């Protein structure tokens, strides 16, 4: 198969970027999108050019490292897959493919197609954890967890933190990410204790980092490679409201020596 | 007020906007009920009685202030949140987004602006005349909303403009109602589908209901 590629090239974080056109030929329909880009880079290296920088790691859809905004959609045209699981058979021979980096104020471009997604790590650091050591794997049913809660928590925990939700959102909001991270901990007994504080801290951190607001277009859900539902955003909203309106006031003990 | 609102969390802003919006949605239902009295063939007696009740009842007077506050809050927050959203993506994509979205959800700001402009026009046409800020047209008393309505709707271009504005409002509400529920955290597989259907039906009723009045006056009474 032959393709015309229009790829965003940007030397560094401050340089001005632009779309550059390349041609690749004799690509197998069974090659992955990254194998196609590898072929392009080999071609560029051979001809003394500068290879295109892009993020990738496991190449099996679980690490959340790959990104790419392909023809106006994060992770390309397929539903429920990451860019690394996309194959060239999903395109037509002779297609022109536009490849851009994720774009958001909170995701500054480092080079070409690579963006800095450490903003998502900062949100996790703000509250996406359980503070106490909860021990090893307990015997079955020592801690009662209703089946449907365990399922919902697992569904939310499927988030790989790739940032496609932010990339797809017309407001560059991270609501689906934060909603998933808040949900998967709050639904389980170990995470419930800190649930109120967690949602307040994570939302405050998200706002500070410059992510947008939610206008419920649900583009995030449509593009999430792990099928995270916007029900998690509603749960976050509900918990945030409850945390602000109903949570107990903290008892301050003054100890004078 | 702007400074106070901008210090709120993104979620608080959205909750306030949703609550104000839902209040405005209920108000629209009441307003439509009164407007439909214009279809009564009684020379505007029922409509005038309802309008004067709304203009004089003291409980309604208090609600009038709440209503203005609701409009103001919803509009200011809408502008502010939209500004923040634009700022969250300083450099835009070369290829515009092709992701599947909820119907009309991307046009809330645009339809909101149309409704806001209509609101201003509506104030000049009725409310400002009633409170004496704007002089009424010749031969019509400042509180005679019935004659004023007949006069306005007998102009075809005005009726058309009015209907276009209510189509925009219907598009706005179609997303707004279910969106408000989601923002308030009320999304559950048990009832969310029902909320979406009821929201769409309600917004359709608002558009059709309000549009019937000018059409009726133009083609039937005129």
Describe the structure.
The complex is a heterodimer of chains A (257) and B (222). Chain A is α+β, with helices and mostly antiparallel strands and 257 residues long. Helices cover 35% and strands 11% of the residues of chain A. In chain A, the strands form two sheets. Chain A has a five-stranded mixed β-sheet with strand order 2-1-5-3-4. A two-stranded antiparallel ribbon of chain A has the order 6-7. In chain A, strand 6 and strand 7 (114-115) form a beta hairpin. Chain B has one domain (2-92, 103-221): Fumarate reductase/succinate dehydrogenase, transmembrane subunit (3 helical TM bundles of succinate and fumarate reductases, Up-down Bundle). Chain B is 73% helix and 0% strand. Chain B has eight helices and no strands. The longest helix of chain B has 30 residues, at 58-87. The A-B interface holds A 6, 8, 19, 69, 71-74, 98, 100, 103-106, 168, 170-173, 203-204, 206-207, 210-219, 222-223, 230-231, 233-241, 244 and B 9-15, 81, 84-85, 87-102, 105-106, 108, 175, 178-179, 182-189.
Compact overview of the structure:
The complex is a heterodimer of chains A (257) and B (222). Chain A has 257 residues and is of the alpha+beta class.
Distinctive features:
heterodimer; A: 257 residues; alpha+beta; Ubiquitin-like (UB roll); Fumarate Reductase Iron-sulfur Protein, Chain B, domain 2; 5-stranded mixed sheet; two-stranded antiparallel sheet; 11% strand; B: 222 residues; mainly alpha; 3 helical TM bundles of succinate and fumarate reductases; 8 helices; 73% helix; 0% strand
């Amino acid at each position: 198969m032959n393709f015309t590629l229009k790829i965003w090239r940007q030397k560094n974080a401050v340089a001005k970027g632009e779309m550059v056109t390349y041609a690749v030929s004799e690509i197998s329909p069974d090659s992955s999108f990254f194998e196609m880009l590898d072929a392009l880079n080999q071609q560029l290296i051979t001809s003394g050019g500068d290879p295109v920088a892009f993020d990738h790691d496991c190449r099996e859809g679980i690490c959340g490292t790959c990104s790419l905004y392909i023809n106006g959609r994060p992770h390309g045209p397929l539903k429920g897959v990451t860019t690394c699981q996309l194959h060239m058979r999903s395109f037509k021979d002779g297609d022109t493919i536009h490849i851009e980096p994720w774009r958001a104020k909170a995701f500054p471009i480092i080079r070409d197609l690579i963006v800095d997604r450490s903003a998502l790590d900062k949100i996790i650091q703000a509250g996406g954890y359980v503070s106490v050591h909860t021990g090893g794997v307990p015997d079955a049913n020592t801690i009662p967890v209703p089946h449907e809660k365990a399922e919902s928590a697992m569904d939310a925990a499927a988030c790989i933190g790739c940032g496609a939700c932010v990339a797809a959102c017309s407001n560059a909001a991270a609501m689906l990410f934060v909603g998933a991270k808040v949900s998967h901990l709050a639904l389980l007994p170990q995470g419930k204790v800190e649930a109120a504080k967690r949602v307040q801290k994570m939302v405050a951190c998200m706002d500070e980092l410059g992510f947008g607001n939610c206008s419920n277009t649900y583009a995030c859900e449509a593009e999430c490679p792990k099928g995270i539902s916007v029900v998690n955003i509603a749960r976050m909203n509900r918990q945030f409201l409850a945390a602000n309106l109903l949570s107990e006031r903290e008892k301050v003990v003054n100890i004078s020596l | 007020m702007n400074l106070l609102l901008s210090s709120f969390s993104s979620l608080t802003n959205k909750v306030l906007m949703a609550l104000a919006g839902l209040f405005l949605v209920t108000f629209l239902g009441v307003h439509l009920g009164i407007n439909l009295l214009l279809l009564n063939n009684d020379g505007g007696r029922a409509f005038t009685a309802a309008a004067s009740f709304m203009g004089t009842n003291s409980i309604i007077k208090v609600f009038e202030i709440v209503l203005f506050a609701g409009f103001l809050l919803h509009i200011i927050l809408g502008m502010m949140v939209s500004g923040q959203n634009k700022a969250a993506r300083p450099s835009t994509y070369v290829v515009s987004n092709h992701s599947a979205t909820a119907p009309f959800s991307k046009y809330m700001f645009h339809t909101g602006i149309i409704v806001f402009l209509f609101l201003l026009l509506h104030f000049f046409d009725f409310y400002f005349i009633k409170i004496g800020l704007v002089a009424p047209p010749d031969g019509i008393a400042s509180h005679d909303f019935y004659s004023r309505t007949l006069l306005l709707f007998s102009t075809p271009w005005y009726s058309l403009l009015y209907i276009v504005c209510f189509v925009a409002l219907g598009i706005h509400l179609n997303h707004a109602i279910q969106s408000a529920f989601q923002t308030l955290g009320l999304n559950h597989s048990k009832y969310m589908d029902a909320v979406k259907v009821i929201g769409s039906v309600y917004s359709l009723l608002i558009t059709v209901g309000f549009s019937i009045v000018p059409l009726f006056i133009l083609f039937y009474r005129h």
